[in-house]
């Protein structure tokens, strides 16, 4: 069930800029939205992930303690984690909206998407990845290629629901103990949604929850 009293990830995505890539009116036809955030502190930080369907149904919420060398690496780690989790929940061909509060990361994701559509794999803008984030960027690129469509939006950290999870992972560690869920958006009756109206048994068995 969608949580009342706060905007859904879809609402946040539709109202936010998507650097270097068009923001078409069909954004609500995206199947899943993933918001991520990474926090850095000298004595430790955290990674936060929130995943919802376009209907506002929560798929996953994660808060991990993490020690990263700097904030840039923590942001890339968080998105890598979020896309990995979503890849195990979403069927092939899913259209995904990414929400991050890191300008360069959002731009890099969209440039990577555009490069994937180019016959020579050329990005319209030069992609610069922070030192130490190369491994996570390769993982992010692999996940982007595995979804049907990806677009990243840049949101304010004050609106990012993953922000408190990343900044207070100990306070929110209870969210990690909740069972995995197999949640899919309600079909729109469009032909393009036929391939995401179900999950194969291997992804659903033992993961359903009424939570």
From TrEMBL:
One of the record's GO molecular function terms: nucleic acid binding
InterPro entries: RNaseH-like_sf (IPR012337), RNaseH_sf (IPR036397)
Domain of life: Archaea
Entry-linked Gene3D superfamilies: Ribonuclease H-like superfamily/Ribonuclease H
Biased composition (Basic and acidic residues): 170-183
Annotated stretches, region: Disordered: 1-26, 158-211
UniProt-recorded name of the protein: Ribonuclease H
Organism: Haloferax profundi
């Amino acid at each position: 069930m969608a949580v009342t009293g706060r905007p859904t990830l879809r609402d946040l995505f539709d109202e936010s800029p998507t650097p270097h890539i068009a923001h078409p009116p069909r954004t609500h036809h995206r199947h899943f939205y993933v918001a991520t955030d990474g926090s850095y502190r000298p004595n430790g930080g955290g990674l936060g992930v929130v995943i919802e369907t376009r209907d506002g149904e929560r798929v996953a919420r994660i808060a991990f303690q993490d020690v990263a060398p700097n904030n840039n690496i923590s942001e890339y780690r968080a998105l890598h984690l979020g896309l990995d989790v979503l890849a195990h929940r979403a069927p092939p061909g899913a259209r995904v909206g990414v929400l991050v509060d890191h300008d360069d990361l959002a731009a890099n994701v969209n440039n990577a998407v555009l490069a994937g559509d180019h016959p020579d794999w050329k990005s319209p803008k030069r992609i610069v990845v922070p030192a130490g984030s190369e491994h996570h960027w390769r993982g992010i690129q692999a996940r982007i290629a595995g979804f049907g469509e990806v677009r990243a939006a840049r949101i304010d950290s004050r609106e990012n629901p993953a922000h408190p999870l990343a900044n207070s992972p100990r306070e929110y560690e209870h969210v990690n103990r909740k069972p995995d869920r197999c949640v899919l958006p309600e079909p729109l009756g469009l032909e393009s949604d036929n391939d995401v109206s179900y999950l194969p048994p291997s992804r659903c068995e033992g993961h359903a929850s009424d939570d």
